[in-house]
Every structure is written in C-alpha cells, then in structure tokens.
C-alpha cells in the first residue's frame, strides 16, 4: 500500500504516467466535470508537485478527496500505471499533513469509529427505516449525515452463522469465510447464502469470530487503523487453519489481496472472491431453473481492482431460465466507493442517478451486485428516481437455484 511511515506517493510510480489521456473517459469525476485536475493524470501531476516539495493545499486535498478510487483508470491505462497504489499512498499523506475543518473531522471521526466495528453497527439496525425518513432533516445539519441516512437499507432479521458449516455430500475443499462489517450487520442474508452455496458445492466453511478487514481505512488513507485491523484479520484466519479465505464483498476482497503491500508480509492463506472461487472449483450441485431477467452490476473493486468480470457472469449464465442483461456504461462507478457517498454526497448522488438510469434501461426484474456498498448506493438512487428494483447478491441467486426455491426464501 505505502512505502512506509512518513512517505507519500512513490516518485517511480508517478514517472510511469505518460499523460496519454486514455484514462479520461473512464474516470467518473472527469466524466462529470471535465476538469483536468479531477482526472487520474491531473491528480498524478499534483502528486508530482507534492513529491517535489509543494505542501498539500486545501485545493489539492479537494482534488484527491474527489477521487473515488474506482481503479477504472488502471484497467484503461496502456502504460500499466499503478494509480491504485498512488492514490492510497497520497491519501495517507493527506490524512497526515492536511488540516481538515472541525466539522469534517467530526464526521470522519464518526464514520471511522462506527463502520469498522460490527458490534457498533448492530446498534443502528433497528433505526434504519427511521433514518431514511429523517434523511432530509439530517442533511440540513450536514450533507454527509443526510447521505448516510438515505443509504440505510431495509435490514432483514439477523441470521446467526455457526462456526463451521459442513459440506453437503463429498467434501471437495475447506475454506474460511469473511463475514465483513456492513455485509454482516445490514445484509446477513448474503452471508447465510454464501455459506449455504459453498456447502452445497462441497466445502467445509470455517467462520471464525472476526472483525473488520481494514478495507474502508485503507481506501481513506487511515494507515495505522488499516494495519491494526488487517493484522487482526490475518491472525484470525491463520489460527483457523485455512489456506483459502472466500470473500463476498468486492472492497474487502480487493484490500485483503493487497495485505502483503500493507503489512510487508504475505499471509499464509490466499484470498479469493466467491465467484472467483466457485469458477475455479467447478459445479457439483444441480442448478434448478430461475425464470427471470437479471442485470449484473460490476463492482469497481471486483472488476477493476481484482479483474473478476467473467466469473460472476458465467455463474449466473449457467442457471437455467435466467436471462442475463448488461448494464450500459458498466465500467463507470455507481458512486459508492466505500465511504465516498458519505464524504462526497453531491458527486456520489450524480453518479448514482446515472447508474440508476442505466440499470432501468435494461428492463431487468433483478439487479445483481457483489458489494454491499453498491447495493445500498444503487437502491437509494433507484428510490429517488421512483424506479425501485430488487437488488440481490450473486450468492443469493445461486443459493435459490441450488436449493430450488424462490429467490429470497430463508433457509
């Protein structure tokens, strides 16, 4: 992730950028505003100025803060520029050197003392409906508070998972499973479906008691918190004795795959996305028909950061009766981007509305996502547009097909 304490963006990585402009049409903020300093190459220019001695001004910090970290530019870059590492390194420097105003510091402090701690998030579960109703009022107090309230999902009943879910039939693998923070507390049905799907495909699923993986902190430049949470996650799964950890949240998987850069040491286990793992494993259980039209949304930290695009489409496409439709402008971020839709609510709203229109254009009955942040962001945008659509995780769709039940039915 970074070059070490006290360092900023790596000059060698900055030098890889030839300013060709291939990144421009893929960058969400450049698409919105057409401003050079709000494009990847423009931000790299600012990073170079900082490395050469220019202090981080409020204007520079604003341009860095406006980046979603979606990594679409990494996919588009013909020179292999590691913008993902550059923006993470730069955000560490911003957090260490830039003095934010007291109100912004308070909001950020609230978010990072809440979201990485599932037990604290759990306290919010009963009030999500009220929060949505109060979004306008809270937004007048502070835009970030209003955005947070508007994103609140409808939370189903809590589902407790055992520490071990046994394989159904012949055991083909033993895997650990990350339960996450937002996924665990706001989308418990996704974790339950993930465990069932893995078991039905012949896996013993080890689910140790665990906390945050550190992804939100990594993406926001909070290096010390990120390392602390990452070390704890590594210890948890090393003690569990698994050599593979399956993740069903794109942002978490992306960060965990970069633990070697963050911690300076590679974990003994490998990290794989659920769809990536199932594609490698190959099908064992019978798929039952699900006659429905489905649009698949590419989460940025799955498609761009992890390069996982074909696998979820192949898994969905193998379900009898399911018609898969592509979302226009699929490479453009929905505006979620971890905490971006809280800290940059206006830009996130514009991107969410754009994504909602693209989803509606598919005419699909169901939108399938692979990240809880995307699910909340697109659902909120669809509500604003009066075009509510059901959103489900890949795991939920597979679970329904494997068990031969209607989508959404509990175990």
TrEMBL record:
Domain 4Fe-4S ferredoxin-type: 9-37, 58-89
The name this protein goes by in its record: Glycolate oxidase iron-sulfur subunit
Gene3D superfamilies: Alpha-helical ferredoxin (1.10.1060.10)
Short name of one Pfam family: CCG
EC number(s) reported in the record: 1.1.99.14
Keywords: 4Fe-4S, Electron transport, Iron, Iron-sulfur, Metal-binding, Repeat, Transport
Functional summary from the UniProt entry: Component of a complex that catalyzes the oxidation of glycolate to glyoxylate.
Annotated cofactor note: Binds 2 [4Fe-4S] clusters.
Keyword Repressor: no
Keyword Nucleus assigned: no
Cofactor: [4Fe-4S] cluster
